[in-house]
Amino acid sequence: MPGDATITTVSANPSPSPENSPVLLRAVAREVEEFVSTAGWDQGLQLFALVPTAELLAQQPELTGQLDPEASPLTPIAQDELPDADLADALLGIVWPDAVAGCALAQEILVLPPEAEEKLRAEELGDEEARAFAAAHPQRREARLVAAVLRDGTAACVLHLRGNTEMPDEVVEHPELAPNLTNALLETFKP
Known about the structure:
Layout: E1 6-7, H1 21-37, E2 46-52, H2 53-59, E3 74-78, H3 87-92, E4 102-111, H4 114-123, H5 127-136, E5 141-150, E6 155-161, E7 170-173, H6 179-187
Antiparallel strand pairs: 1-3, 2-3, 2-4, 4-5, 5-6, 6-7
């Protein structure tokens, strides 16, 4: 796993079997978002390895009092900070050991209304110009996106839209909120 780790447990279904993988992964993605939220906004990219809790306890029995594989079948382990510059390049360099069942990535993004996104696509702007356009748009919303995947291809996404004086925080969940990102995360598990 890339770098030092911070352990946080998740509450989820008791068994990480294939039939409940989507439910389990949604719970893990929500828990990662809640964990990241405790540090507030304006954070960099954060990557987590998702390790079966039972295997983690077998390797590190001193964690027995802190982790419960029945209550939390997967344990997210925070990895070293990723560079903000080029996420695609950073992900290309990641190779997970077999003990890692999946991963989750938390990143802050700007969400634009549909008509602004259409204009952005139509203008075919480069990355820097697109970021400047989004940052200057009067209807932009800051958000935190957590995308999580398992080796079996299961994906989950949580989008936490930051509230303001006119609207409260909102949380949206759907496995296809960020298909390019979940596909990129799945690529980190390919040989």
